[in-house]
Structures are given as structure tokens and as C-alpha cells.
């Protein structure tokens, strides 16, 4: 009974803290005389304004007599295209249109700029995570290798990347390496995030390997396993179980760090928010929405990692 009262008291404290935070935010908005307007936010998630159909190449326009089909025949070429699902045509039969000219208007729902930015953030984070795990695993194994060259190179990689800011690395990869190798903005962003995150994953893996008793490796070798086999089947599975919470934290950091690629020509979630604010001058509503979307991403990842951790604990 006493324990139930204690738990109820602390839940009450938790509720009071949340109420205090909400009241504090509201008080600050009143203090700066901010006029909240959330009505425009949904259109940045799912837009009902329809979509414009643009010409994919220079072409002549042909519209059927019933006005339901618009066809394009490439000017000086062999390509063609046709459209049937549109509400209003802005071109007429016989017109010569050029690439990206407006052809027609297509009604219906379409993703808003925030959802487009969210998809870019998801795609960028997922691809970067795959390569970061690869870089981190190789560098982590190099950190504990007997080969002095591998150990020293891995150490230099980790110290160099962890000792410089991510934003500086993004600029170097995008403006220098990307220019020389002609990398797209997306590829440059993946490289910068993967290399940066890989250095931290390497240290996490190294600490996990070193936390496994040496007797595990010795016992595996005595059973006839090679070093690589013992590391793959015995040491690494145990190390990954122990380092899963730390890896999850690094994965979450990767999602948040992806917001820095907005300095490049990529419309991720953060850049989408900035573009909206530049047009509607509603910073509070937009940034709170962006923050909640990031929170949904990281919260989902945390939940999945906790489920995986519990499952591995029972194996």
C-alpha cells in the first residue's frame, strides 16, 4: 500500500513537470505576443492543392476532341508521352512546349513538403547507417587486431573523424571530394554521415570486443577455429549484445545529425522546415512540427532496439 502511494506521488510529480513545461512554453509565446496558427500546418504534411503536370521534354501537344487525353511528341526526336488523369489543360493542340512548361493541372492529394523532407531524411539515414556499420565494424576489428598497420590506420581514422566537427566534414566531402569525384549531393551526404558515424561505431565495437573474456577466444582457437571464425561466431555475437544500447544511441544520433545535410542541395526535413518558414513566417508551429517528426523517428527506432534487446536477452 505504501509503495502504491509512493508511485502515485512520483507520477503526480511527473505530470506536474509536464504541465509546467507546457505552461512555460505558453507563457513565453504570450510574452513575445506570438499569434499561434496551426491551421496551415496540415497542408505541409498532406497537400490538397493538387499537382502541376510539366513537360518532360520539348514537344508538340495533341489533345483529343473530348479533351480527356493530352499527348506529347518530342520535337526533333522519337519520344512521346500521354496524360489522361488531369482536370484542366493549360496547353492547346498544336502548341510547341518546352521542358518544364506547364501542361495541365492534376487534382488530388499529394505529399506535402514536410513529408517529402521526412522521406529524404529516412532514405539518407538508412543508407548512411548501412555503410556506417560496415566502416565501424572494419575499423573496430582493426583497433583490436595484432597487425600494427591495421591497428594504427584504424586508430588514426577514429581520432581524425572524432576530432573534427561533422559540419566541417560535410563541407569537405561536398565541396572538395564531391567536386573532384563528381558526387551527387545525396551521395556526398551519405559518405559524410557514414564516415562520421562509423568512427563512433568503431569505438563501440572495440569496447564490446574487449569486454568479452579472453578465454572465449582461447577456447575457440583450441577447438580448431581460425581467428576469423572465432571472432565471427563466438566473440562478435557476445560483443554486439553488450553494445546494443550504445549502438542504438549512435543510430539515433545519426538521424539527428542528418539535419546538417540541409547545407547542401538536399531537401531533408530540416531544410523543408526552413523553406516553409521563409514563405509563411510561422517559425514556432513549423519547428515544433519538425521536432515532433524527428521525435517520432527516433522514438520508433528506440522502441525497435528495446524489443531486439529483450529478444536477444532470452536467447
Automatic annotation (TrEMBL):
List the signal peptide residues.
none
Alphabetically, the GO molecular function entries are:
transmembrane transporter activity
Name the domain of life. Answer: Bacteria
Query: GO cellular component terms?
Result: ATP-binding cassette (ABC) transporter complex
User: One GO BP annotation here?
Assistant: amino acid transport
The record's annotation in InterPro entries points to: AA_ABC_transptr_permease_3TM, ArtM/GltK/GlnP/TcyL/YhdX-like, MetI-like, MetI-like_sf
User: Which Pfam families does this entry report, sorted A to Z?
Assistant: BPD_transp_1 (PF00528)
Listed Gene3D superfamilies? MetI-like
- List the keywords (alphabetical): Amino-acid transport, Cell membrane, Membrane, Transmembrane, Transmembrane helix, Transport
Record's subcellular location: Cell inner membrane; Cell membrane
What kind of membrane protein is this, topologically? Multi-pass membrane protein
Residue span, ABC transmembrane type-1 domain: 118-305
- CDD domains registered for this protein in UniProt: TM_PBP2
> Any stretches that span the bilayer, and where are they?
9-28, 113-139, 286-305
| Family, as annotated | Belongs to the binding-protein-dependent transport system permease family. HisMQ subfamily.
What's its job?
Answer: Part of the binding-protein-dependent transport system for glutamine; probably responsible for the translocation of the substrate across the membrane.
| The protein, known as | Putative glutamine transport system permease protein GlnP
Q: Which organism is it from?
A: Hydrocarboniphaga daqingensis
Amino acid at each position: 500500500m505504501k509503495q502504491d502511494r509512493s508511485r502515485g506521488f512520483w507520477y503526480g510529480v511527473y505530470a506536474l513537470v509536464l504541465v509546467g513545461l507546457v505552461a512555460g512554453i505558453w507563457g513565453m509565446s504570450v510574452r513575445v505576443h506570438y499569434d499561434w496558427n496551426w491551421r496551415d500546418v496540415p497542408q505541409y504534411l498532406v497537400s490538397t492543392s493538387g499537382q502541376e503536370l510539366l513537360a518532360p521534354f520539348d514537344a508538340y501537344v495533341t489533345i483529343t476532341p473530348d479533351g480527356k487525353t493530352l499527348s506529347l511528341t518530342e520535337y526533333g526526336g522519337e519520344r512521346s508521352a500521354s496524360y489522361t488523369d488531369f482536370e484542366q489543360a493549360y496547353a492547346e493542340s498544336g502548341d510547341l512546349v518546352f521542358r518544364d512548361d506547364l501542361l495541365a493541372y492534376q487534382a488530388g492529394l499529394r505529399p506535402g513538403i514536410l513529408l517529402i523532407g521526412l522521406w529524404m531524411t529516412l532514405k539518407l539515414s538508412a543508407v548512411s547507417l548501412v555503410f556506417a556499420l560496415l566502416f565501424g565494424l572494419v575499423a573496430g576489428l582493426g583497433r583490436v587486431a595484432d597487425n600494427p598497420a591495421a591497428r594504427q590506420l584504424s586508430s588514426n581514422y577514429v581520432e581524425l573523424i572524432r576530432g573534427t566537427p561533422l559540419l566541417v566534414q560535410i563541407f569537405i566531402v561536398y565541396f572538395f571530394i564531391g567536386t573532384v569525384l563528381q558526387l551527387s549531393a545525396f551521395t556526398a551526404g551519405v559518405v559524410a554521415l557514414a564516415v562520421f558515424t562509423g568512427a563512433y561505431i568503431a569505438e563501440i565495437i572495440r569496447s564490446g570486443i574487449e569486454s568479452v573474456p579472453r578465454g572465449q577466444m582461447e577456447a575457440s582457437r583450441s577447438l580448431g577455429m581460425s581467428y576469423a571464425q572465432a571472432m565471427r561466431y563466438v566473440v562478435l555475437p557476445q560483443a554486439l549484445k553488450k553494445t546494443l544500447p550504445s549502438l542504438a544511441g549512435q543510430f539515433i544520433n545519426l538521424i539527428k545529425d542528418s539535419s546538417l545535410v540541409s547545407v547542401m542541395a538536399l531537401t531533408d526535413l530540416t531544410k523543408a522546415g526552413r523553406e516553409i518558414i521563409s514563405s509563411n513566417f510561422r517559425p514556432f508551429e513549423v519547428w515544433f512540427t519538425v521536432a515532433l517528426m524527428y521525435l517520432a523517428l527516433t522514438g520508433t527506432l528506440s522502441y525497435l532496439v528495446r524489443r531486439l534487446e529483450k529478444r536477444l536477452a532470452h536467447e
